[in-house]
């Protein structure tokens, strides 16, 4: 008779929407600004700043900030392995792009991006499974 009291609640139309903490906005924004400045700095290569370098910095910083925010928004719904893979892939692409701006070979930027991405994957995988309830 009291089975209805033990039933879990539904997350339907009455569920409150999740609110973003200030860290959920600030962290991707700060990462995007730092990444954009660094990308423009690498492309500048000691010469004068140009409009193309500023645009490169703005676009790459905005892209990284948007991807970090999106990943932070959906990370709780992802399984542990996929979450670690997503963080590793995002980091690998970001580092590979920065290395490619230095006019080195494609193989070097790919290898360095993959090495850093695998490291981030392993660290994230360990953190996710060690904090599992």
Task: Kindly state the number of beta strands.
Answer: 0
- The number of distinct helices, counting runs of at least 4 residues, comes to 5
Low-confidence stretches: none
Structural class: mainly alpha
Structure characterization notes:
With 133 residues, the chain is mostly helical. It is built from five helices and no strands. Helix 3 runs antiparallel to helix 4 and helix 4 packs antiparallel against helix 5 (106-130). The longest helix is centred in the last third of the chain and has 25 residues, at 106-130. The model has no long low-confidence stretch (mean pLDDT 87).
Element layout with pairings:
Blueprint: H1 3-6, H2 22-44, H3 51-74, H4 80-100, H5 106-130
Helix pairs in contact: 2-3, 3-4, 4-5
